[in-house]
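Newbie here. three chains, one complex. Structure please?
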Amino acid sequence: MQLSYYPGCTLKTDGKNFETSALAVLDRLGVSVSELEDWYCCGVCFSQTQDNLMQQVAPVRTLVKAKEKGNPQLLALCTMCFNTLKRSIEFIKNDSEKMDTIHQFMDLENTQFFGDEIDVVDILTLIRQIGLEKLKEAIVKTDAGLKIASYYGCMLLRPKEIAIDSPDDPVILEEILESAGCENVYFPFRTECCGSYQIVNKPNIVKDRAKKIVNSAVKNGADLIVMLCPLCYFNFDEIQLDIKKEDASFQTIPVLYITQLLALLMGLDPHIQDFNLHAIDPRPVLKRKGLL
Amino acid sequence: MKRVGVFVCHCGINIASTIDISKVVEDLKNYPGITFIQDYKYMCSEPGQALLKEKIKAEKIDAIVIAACSPTLHENTFRMAVKSVDMNPYNCEIANIREQCSWVHNNISEATEKAKRIIKSVVEKALLDEDLEPVRVPVTRKALVLGGGIAGIQSALSIANSGYEVILVERQSSIGGRMAQLSETFPTLDCSQCILTPKMVDAGQHKNIRLMTYSELDDISGFVGNFKVKIRQKAKYVDWEKCTGCGLCIEKCPKKVPSEFDQGLGKRKAIYTPFPQAVPNKPVIDCENCTYFKTGKCRLCEKVCPFDAINFDETDSFIEEEVGAIIVATGYDVYPVLNMSEYGGGKIPDVIDGLTFERILSASGPTGGEVRRPSDGKIPKEIVFIKCVGSRDPEHHYPYCSKICCMYTTKHAMLYKHRVHDGQPYIFYMDVRAGGKGYEEFYQRAQEEDKVVFLRGKVSKVYQDDDKVVVCGIDTLSGSNVEIRADMVVLAMAIRPSKGIEELAQLLKISIDQNGFLTEAHPKLRPVESLSAGIYLAGCAQAPKDIPDTVSQATATAAMISNLFSQEYLLHEPIITGVDEELCSGCGLCVAVCPYDARKTNREKGVVEVNEILCEACGACAAACPSGAAQQRNFTDTQLSNMVKAILAE
Amino acid sequence: MTKNKTVSAHQISHENVDKLKDISGVNVYACYQCGNCSSACPAVEFMDIPPHQIIRKVQLGFIDELLESETPWICAACITCTVKCPRGVDIAKVMEALRQLVLRSDFEHGNLCEIEDKLRKKLPQIALIGNFRKTIL
C-alpha cells in the first residue's frame, strides 16, 4: 500500500511525536507513505465564505501537488489540515468556474485539478482500511488493561459533509482502541470543542473547556486521554498545570496521540515518543501498565 | 350533423380579465359545427344552469361545450344539468379555458386566441360523442378492517351497527392497539383502558364482526365492491376452539421474555396474552422464545392444559374472503430512542420514550402505577420531558410534527406531579400546540396548578453523571442555557407509520407520502378515502393524530362504507376502451400494457376481451393497438385527430 | 446597562440579510429558534449574544448591532451549531460572514502583536495560523 503524506506545519515542530509515532505505526502495518515535496501551508482555516476564492488557493495547490505525485490517496495526519483540504475539495468539486479562477492564481502549477482525483484520508480511516484484524496482530502488549478516554475533537467530525463517522455518535476511534486491547471509558464530552485557536487571545475559553472535558475523563476512570489533533493536544496538556494552580482539587491526566499509544502497544522503540514534549508526563502511568 | 351549443363562462374576472370573451363569441359564431354560442358571468350558478337548460330546449341542441374551469370542478354539475333536460350527459363537454389558459397567461390577445382553439377542439370532440350509459357493478356488502387499534375497532363497530358484516384483522393476538397501552388520556384524564375495553368487548361479541387476530393480509385482487382477499392466520399453537382462556398454561410456562406490551419493562411468558383484558383472551405461543421450539424439550403447557388445546404442529393457515370495501387502520410505531445518541437513547437506562412512561404511569403497568425509574427503581425527584424528539427535524430525522406529543407530555408532567408531590417536572418545548377542545385549558392547568416548569428550547445533550442524568438545554425566552441534573428523562419521540406499511400499501395499490404515511384522496375534501376506490384510511396510518381525531376519522370511514353498501349496484364510468372484434387480430399487445388486468385474450375466438369494470380508461391499450381495434369510447382516434387538427389549424 | 428598545417595523430590513447571504450562502429564514445551536455551543458562556439570537437578529436585519457584538470573535468555528441545527442553517458560516463584514471595512481589527510574548513562543503554529480566521480577510 502506497500513499502520499502531507504533514503540515505543526507536525514538524510541536507535533513531532505525532508524526514519528504515526509513521512508525504505519510502517509496522506495512504501509509506506511518501511525503509531498515542497508542500505549502494548507490554509488552516478553511474560509467559510462563498465569495472569497483566495483562501482556497493554498489547499488547492497542495492537492495539485498530490495529484502530480500520482497516488490517489493523501494522508493528512493533522486534523486541521485534513478538514481544510477535504472541505476545499467539497467547495470546488464539480464547479469549473471556481476552478478556473483559482487556476489563474497558480503560476507554478500546470496540472488541471477537478476535485475528485484526490482522496484525503485521516489516520483512523486509514487504519480501518488496513484492517482491524491486521492491527490486532501487530499488538504485542495485549494485557495492558488501559482505560482510555477517546477524544475526537471537531475537525474529523464536522461539518457532516466531510465527517469520517457519525458527527453525533462516532465509533471509529473506540473500535480501533478496542482492537488494540484497550477499554474505552464512558466519555460524554468526546466530541466537544477544546476551544481551538482561542488559546491565542482568549485562553480562558480554552481553560474552561479543558477543565470540563478533563474532569469528565478523570471521573469516568480513564488512565489517559487519547486524541488526534495537535491543537487539542496543546490545549489539553500544559493548561492542566495552570488549572491545577487555581484549583488544588483538580486531577491531571496525561494526553497522548493515538499513534503514540499504538506504537507502545506494538512494542516499538519508546525513543520515538519524545516524552519531553509532554507537560503532563505520561510515563508513570505507562510504566504502571507495563508499557515502558 | 349534431347541433352543438357553446357556453363561455366569465368566471367573474378569473377568465374575463385575461380572455376577451366577446371576441371569442364573435369569432366562433360561424365556426362550422357550432349552432349556438353565448357567454355568461357564472355558468355554474343556478341562473347559469337554467340558461343552459333553456337554450338546449329552445335551440334543439344535441351536445354542449362549456368553456370554463377544469372539468374536475364542474363537469358533474353540468352533466347533471343536461341530464335533467333529457340530454345524455356524455354529450356535455368542458373546454378548460381557466386553469389551462386565463390563469397561466397575461397577454390578452394571445390568451384569447388560445381559448378559441381550445374551444374549437372540444367542439370537434363533442360532434362525435356518443350517448353512453354507466356500467353497473354489483357490491359485496362486507368490509375488511386492517388493524385492531381504536381506529379499527371504532370503524368496525360503526359498520357492524349499520347492519353490515365486518372482518377485523389484527396482527397481534389481541385487539386494543396502542390505546390499550396508555395510562390516562388528555385532557380529561380518564383511564384509557376503562374507556377502551368496553369497545373491545363489543367488537369481540358483535354478531356482525368476525375477529381475526394474529392474522395479516396476505393477498388481494379485485376492485371496489368486489375485492377478493386472502388472510394469513399465523400459527398460534393453541386451538382457540378448545381453549377457555383459563391461563394455567401461562402460569406454568417456565420461559420469561420482555413484554412488548410493557415496552420491555416487564416480563411475559413464552405462551402469553399481551395483557389481562385481551380480546380474545386466549394465548398464543411465541415460537421464537418457546423452550420446546428452541430445544425440543418442555411441552409443560401441553401437560397442564385441561382442554387439550395446545397443538405444536399447527401451521399458518389461509382464509379467503370476498369484501366490498377495506379500511386501513394500521396505526403507528414510536421512533426508537436508539436513534437519539446525543440524548443517550438506548445507552442510558433512565432515558425512555413517552410510550414507556405511559406503562410506568399505568395502574396495570410494571410498577403498578408508581413512578419509578428503570435503572434502580428509585422514585425520580427531578424529571425532564423533552418534546419534538425526532419530529420537526428535517435535517436529521422527520420533518413533520407528530401532533400528539404536546398534549401527552403535558399530561405526563401533570400525572407525575400528582404521584410525586415533592417532585419537579420540567418540559423542554419549542411550541405548545394545544389546538383541541379543552387542550389549552389543560396546558394552563399544568403551568398554574401543577407548577410544571416549561423551558422554551431544545436540548443539545444528555449524559450520565453518577446516578444523575444531566440535561443540557436552553431557554430561548430568557436567553440562558439550562443544565438540569435530573433523575430521569422522557423523550417525546416522533411517531411514524407502523412497520410494514410500505409492503401493505404496495399490496393494496395505494400510495404513501414522503414520510411513509398513507395518502388521502384530497387533504381537505376527501380526507378518509385513499386514491383507490373502495379503500379507506383511519387513524395514524394516514397522519399522526390523537384519540378524538382518530375516532372521528374511523367513524367517517364507516359512514363512507355504509354509503357505498347502501347502493343497489355501483356505477362505473362507461368511458372504457372496447375491442372492435372485426379489426382485432388477438396479438395481445394491449393485454401486456394494461395496468389493471382488464384485458384478456380469448384464444378460441382469437380476439381480446375487456372486463369493463376493471378498465380505468387510461388509454394505454388504445395507443398500443396496431390495428385500431382498441378504441376508447368518446376518445376515438378520429375524435383525437380532429381535436388536434382544430388546435393547429391556421 | 442596555435598555429595552422598541423597534419600528421599517427598521426590519431584508437588505442587510441579502448582503450576509452573498457572503455566507446561508438562508437564515429556515431558523425556527429552537436554540439548539446556543445550547450546544461550547463558548456560549463567553458570548454577549447567544448564537440563536444572532440568527434571529440577522432574520430581522439588525446587522449593525451584530457588528458590535463580541460573539463572532468568541466563536471558535467548531461547527457544532451547524451540525446540531434541525433546519440545516449553517450558523458557523453566518459567524464567519459577520467577521468578514467587520474585517472588510476594518483592516486593523485584531492585532497579532497583542499576543503575550511568552505565550507566542509556546504556541504551536496551528494555533497562531488558526487564529487568522479572526484577523485576515
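Moderator note: The domain at 141-288 of chain A is CATH 3.40.50.11810 (Rossmann fold). DSSP finds twelve helices and eight strands in chain A. Thread marked as resolved.
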